[in-house]
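Re: fe (ii) ion structure - here you go.
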Amino acid sequence: MSAEIRIPSILKIGGGAFGEAGALLAQLNCKRPLIVTDPFLKKQGLADRLLKQIEDAGMGAAIFHDTVADPTSTVIEAGVHVFHEGGHDSLVSLGGGSPMDTAKAIGMLAANGGKARDYKAPRTIPLAGPQHVAIPTTAGTGSEVTRFTVVTDAETDEKMLIAGGVLTPTAALVDYELTLSMPARLTADTGTDSLTHAIESYVSRKANAFSDALALTAMRVIWRALPTCVREPGNRQAREAMMLAATQAGMAFSNASVALVHGMSRPIGAHFHVPHGLSNAMLLPAVTAFSVGAAAERYADCARTMGIAVADDPTNKAADLLVEALYRRNAELEVPTPKQYGIAEEQYFAKIPLMAQQALASGSPQNNPRVPTAQEIEALYSACWSASARVRPTAGGVRSTR
Ligand SMILES: [Fe+2]
């Protein structure tokens, strides 16, 4: 079976790419872009710099800066209203995953009408939206190059995955200089999200030769560059490497899909408002331990590529070394467990059956090398609860030493 690859038509990568936004929009024949950003970037002035650049290039534009951390259907409907009322013909998203995902959903509803929930995966999106130039300010969600958006239904609190090639932005400006001011926690969390994208796309049942190459390159770079970016925020070389690798990881998972970590991560984010990268980090070591036995060769490739195992290490040993390294990395990056994050124990455990159901319904766990049952997902959520939890791969299921 062939793999359908979707990536933006234009990628501008490197320091200073942000300054080319106006020229790029003109080149795309956009007349009246709507800038979609968050209140922080509006206040801090970056959105206004973008607006000026676009106006200087001879276009009219406006800023929609009401995006929220987990894009809701309410905010998206407000954005669609602004898009139509302002007579806009294109979108420019500026920010992390939330503004980019918001812009994708605004474009989708502007072209197709209806509500975000009408397009929840696995439903398809009939019409392509307006042209969309994505400018990420984190490294990152990879949303600037993916065919996905995640929208929280304001009525049910469900974090819905919406997927379709038409959601892939027309162009992306990938400028690492925009990430130099990211604080350490955000750097660590968004970077671990990228690492998760790279590993999950490489072990995904939908992996293909195109996504493999990007995933391996991305994980090799991210493993080395991320701790440097966290320790030395102003290290331009590390930031530049991290930014490109995050985009490559985005292209990998957009064309291979994510798997169990993301499937389980979205419900934690939706119910307990844990940032996306952080909930991935909370789950990544335990879910990897659960999965390695089903694709030991692939996980061993990851370990060798990341420099965690050497070429001569036997496959199973290399895969186990990966699991251990992921636990160590979480300690190094001070990733809290759900308990340490401050989630109430009773609420967490009460939500586990529902979270397991929602994880399975998203479809992502079905891409995992080891496809879990609802009970196995529940056991993994339990095992991830506290700091002492360690999940070991076993033939018969999940064993926690908690
Ligand atoms: Fe992600």
